[in-house]
Amino acid sequence: MKNNATFVYSPELLSYKFNQHHPFNQKRLELTVDLLKSIQALSDEQIVPPRKASDDELQLIHDEDFIEAVKRAGRQELPMDRANNFGLGTEDTPIFPNMHEASSLIVGGTITAVDSVMEGKSDHALHLGGGLHHGFRGRASGFCIYNDCSISIAYLRQKYNVRVLYIDTDAHHGDGVQWAFYDDPDVCTLSIHETGRYLFPGTGQVHERGTGQGYGFTFNIPLDAFTEDESWLHAYKTSVEKVVEYFQPDIIVSQNGADAHYYDPLTHLSASIKIYQEIPKLAHEIAHKYCDGKWIAVGGGGYDIWRVVPRAWSFIWLEMTNQRDKATGKLPEDWLEKWTAQSPVPLPTEWMDPVDMVPVIPRKKEIEEKNAQVVAMALKIIQNSKL
């Protein structure tokens, strides 16, 4: 019997850990799973453990030399000068024991989600451990070793021959995925992110539109720093609705970084938790309208792991399983009691943020107007295609 949605998770995913002080902290997975269980929205029966990706699957995107370097690095056998050539041993992507095993488990988790949907076991699948969208063919980058997003899309193309719409709402541009499919007319990438003027990786400009047969299937919406909910949601809803109608995908793959929030320590956007209610709502809607429900969602960035990520990511699962009514009012007391002592910041007590959380932005109107112009520029190619 088909399940409505599959939740891919195992505590083993927490082994992807650079060091104690690194901002990428997979404890956010544990916090999210515990929050969903606290409101009785997730049961053990709904959880499917990830498997490790094979070397052949990793090589759908990554070079064999890079994979071997990751294996050697995780065994402390790779000289640092060689490691740096592969983006390993840097401040962003330090070497840690068993890097290959931890990274291939993340990739395998996203492939597990893909197979669950494509084999008809569920309409939707969620793998919050995934979303590592910065990894390149031969180089780690931006906290990401293997790029599970790119590999899963290549896997979808090879095994199932489907047209894939990839929607990335991380505050950082989804560069690794974009460049992997920049010339592929059967993969459309849409990234809505903070402008690279201030933020890593510095790419994702409006004029990056694809090349060769893939021209016209890459979309970027770089938003100004301090963008708030209304402007962010206008960009998201307008671009997603136009792009999905234009591309007509067979499946939606969404990357759900939770770092556009005002509290996030690594970015400069000013969104509240409200956008994280709306992001999965529209993804869910278009999946049923265009793709017979086929929707894979993964995690991504999100560096306020206590106040933001558990709530933001819970909304994805609650949307997938039609349990939105369980996320209203106050957060569960047992969850707050369990984690308050460990949290370095006061935990929120309600699902939604206070209306006065974000201070008044002096350039609010200017930012909104600029963002609207960026959206129009990004979507101009769709308008031109209809002429």
UniProtKB/TrEMBL annotation:
PANTHER family cross-referenced by the UniProt entry: HISTONE DEACETYLASE HDAC1, HISTONE DEACETYLASE HDAC1-RELATED
Domain Histone deacetylase: residue ranges: 22-317
Q: In which pathway does it act?
A: Ketone degradation; acetoin degradation
* Pfam families to which the protein is assigned, alphabetical: Hist_deacetyl
Q: Which InterPro entries match?
A: AcuC (IPR003085), HDACs (IPR000286), His_deacetylse_dom (IPR023801), His_deacetylse_dom_sf (IPR037138), Ureohydrolase_dom_sf (IPR023696)
Q: Which UniProt keywords apply?
A: Acetoin catabolism
Name the protein family.
Belongs to the histone deacetylase family.
Q: What SUPFAM superfamilies does the record point to?
A: Arginase/deacetylase
Record has Cytoplasm as a keyword: no
Does this UniProt record's set of keywords contain Repressor?
no
The protein, known as: Acetoin utilization protein AcuC
